[in-house]
Amino acid sequence: MRVQATNCASSFEVTTDGVGVVGHAGAALLRELADRLGLTTALDWRQVGRRRRHPDAAVLRDLAVMLADGGDCLSDLAVLRDQPALFGPVASTPTAWRVIERAGQDPDGLARLRAARAHARARAWAADGDPDVELLIIDADATLVLAQTDAKEGAAGTYKHTFGFAPLLAYLDRGQAPGEPLAGLLRPGNASPGAAGDLMELVDLALAQLPADERPVLVRSDSAGGSTRLAWHLRERGIGFTLGMQIDAHVREAILAQPEPAWTPAVEPDGQLRPGAEVCELTGWIDLHTWPPGTRLLCRREDAHPGAQLRFTDHDGHRFQVFLTDQADPDLARLELRHRQRARVEDRIRAAKATGLANLPFDLLRRNAVWLELVLAAQDLTCWTQALLLNGALAVAEPKTLRYRLLHVAARIVRHARRLILRLQASWPWAVELACAFARLRALPLRC
Q1: Alpha-carbon distance 395 to 302, whole Å?
Q2: What is the C-alpha to C-alpha distance for residues 30 and 27, in angstroms, rounded to an integer?
Q3: Does the model's pTM come out above 0.85?
Q4: Strands of 3-127, DSSP E
Q5: pLDDT tens per residue, range 255-272
Q6: Cβ atoms of 360 and 147 closer than 8 Å
């Protein structure tokens, strides 16, 4: 058999005489949003010393924009710096490093970063960016961030036999839309996922991020957060809870003692029955006297997925999940659905790792703690952009999709009649959406 070789002839020439062409044009949307929401101004706390060419607030803002745009280290700030026609003067990598160090050395540095985010969040919510829900739900969860060297302060062995860090994160659930980051705590890799003191601090930081609001608040967590200390802390603050619980021998015995009529079919978010899943209440079967009054214990059983490895707590092909809640709602299926939707926080954490969290680039813990706050600020900007400026599929898009369609778009900058014009490619499928997003941004009732 003979194969005829084909040569693909180049159909274009390559030159270096282009003028006014910029990339990552959509990142300018995030930068302008940070200014208009007052995030940049709020980051401008007083610094001792001479007046700097690159104010710390502008550098911190540009780092957050860079992370939202897909960067994961300080040198990626060159994406903005190499395009002065669009982004103006941007700090060098050494300058950005010094800003991170100053924020880390400042005893109030993290607190001021968090206060700036809270200030911008209040303005974003006031501009109709708040979640349209009757109940504000905060999801708390731990994750692991790997490190390749023990030269990083705080890096340690983890419970999964890896090496790195174990930060705690809290997100506001916004349904199918991207979750809004509220708080984060950077911890050594050997920190316990269920450390009650850390979870209490995380919840307090998350509550401080919420604008003044009369809506009730509920905190969700998996079994790592199932502690009486956390439950009583939430009760003292007037916050509801739905917390996972480990299944021990007593709980398993109570589950197996339930008659078949005690099980209620579980439901999907659209109200349809969830195949092979039921829920029942175990309150009264387990001693809960150490928990806040009104605490209830619920259990979900579900058919194991084909090929799933059953555990010792499983029985008769069913898998069980138990959780505690102080909600008085008599609808067991609705309570179980609300707790099950806690799994959405896994997507929020995955998006954080795609926004710079997967790489903690510094050697000292204080610098990486500042980096974590900037990752949360980058997610803030992405969330507010989608809530305030975008519609349809783009309003719920993953970071990778959003970058490809909007943030990394190329454009041409031209000057005409004393105006600076950013001309998007007419044939780009999402050019109109990006142009409309800029128009909505400039129509917001906000001041720079």
Answers
A1: 33
A2: 5
A3: yes
A4: 21-22
A5: 888 898 999 999 999 889
A6: yes
